[in-house]
Amino acid sequence: MFSAFVDNSRNSPIKQSKMQTLKSLIYLSKGNLPSKMAHSIQTVKMAQAFSQKVENFELVTGGDIFSALKGIDSEFQAWYGLCYKFKLVRLPIHIKLKYPFPQNYENFIFYKLAILYACFKSPFLIYTRSFPVVEILLRMRIPVLWEWHEPVSEKLQSTCKELFNNKNLIGVVTTLPQLAENYLKHGLLSEKILIAPNAVDIDNFLPYHDKTVARQKLSLRQDAKIVLYSGHLYDYKGIPTILKTACLMPECEFVLVGGWADDINRVKATCQKMSLQNIQFFGHVPQSKLALYLYAADILILPTSKHWDLAEATCPLKLFDYMVAKRPIVASALPTIATVLRHRENALLVEPDEPQSFQAAIDTLFNNPLLANTIAECAFREVHNFTWDERAERVLQFATERLQKVDKSAARYMKNLLEYITLKTISPSKLVEL
Length: 434
What we know:
The chain is of the alpha/beta class. It contains 18 helices and 13 strands. Strands 3-2-1-4-5-6-7 form a seven-stranded parallel β-sheet, with helices on both faces. The longest helix is centred in the C-terminal third of the chain and has 16 residues, at about 390-405. The relative contact order is 0.14. Residues about 1-20 and about 430-434 have low confidence and may be disordered.
């Protein structure tokens, strides 16, 4: 069935002549940059890749009065590990902010101002990951390309059906065939779907660090057997599995990189109750420094729980970071993760939520250095097919082809905006529901 989707091959040729017609692109974010949320990394990495391919590119986010004057600065670049500067528009919706933005930040004033800004600029293409922005733009009859990584929930079925059937929806960019199948079932045409897996910024991992050097810089024991996890410390990410595995393997050091302060304190308290002595916490680190921690590990672990509501709809960004680090990976054998990883070829896949399975896989890798090196090298080679640059090219090709099927008169931004305001086609209560 998935052969029906547009441009599913990662190696399809890019039609440069069509891409050249896309002279301007505005990416309307969720307004929360910089943030510790993983989706913000994906947004900014795609923005950097777009900026190298589109003549006039802007990424729009929220901010305060001072940051609005700065645009993109060295702190923002370091937070996301950016190699290039691009135009970052920070709409001053706050008087003063302490960055990064807090967890689950959302501001509907930002959505309205961001849309006003985009209408004023009238780009060739508006791109967004924000559900409310898509809903409003389509009510205004303004074409939009939507990136979405979640299945259609029961609550949003009727709304999504309306959006999917809107002729001004250029298309939906998603990361997994499972998500594409879900959208098909809810009425989205196959030609409006692009499956583009997540990716990695390989430049963030240069220069390569030997394990010995990385451990010296991080003050980690050279003789330790280090199993490392990078990401948030939510239970559905598999943290209970890590702790139980650590109980079974006191000879190993388990290093956790990432997490909100409250979650770190919660997991530390659990470790005390379990009398765990072999867990280290490093907290959140910027993207520009993440590679050093991964290089310090012997094994990288991805224990996503099968009981998570979105377990069948996620393929974490950290997976691609792991692959670049050239360290063997032990991961949950979920169908979504199996779209990238293959057991005993580029990783070891084990039963989710089963500490004994993770223990056995970790022991296997420590006892079989040849296998560990083989799967790590395979993952490293294959991850070069998953770069933000290549992903951006595929999205732009998809967008230019789809734009040809959109009514050119639809993109009359200011006219449509004025009609929208006059007719009040959407109420404040509707926005709150979204």
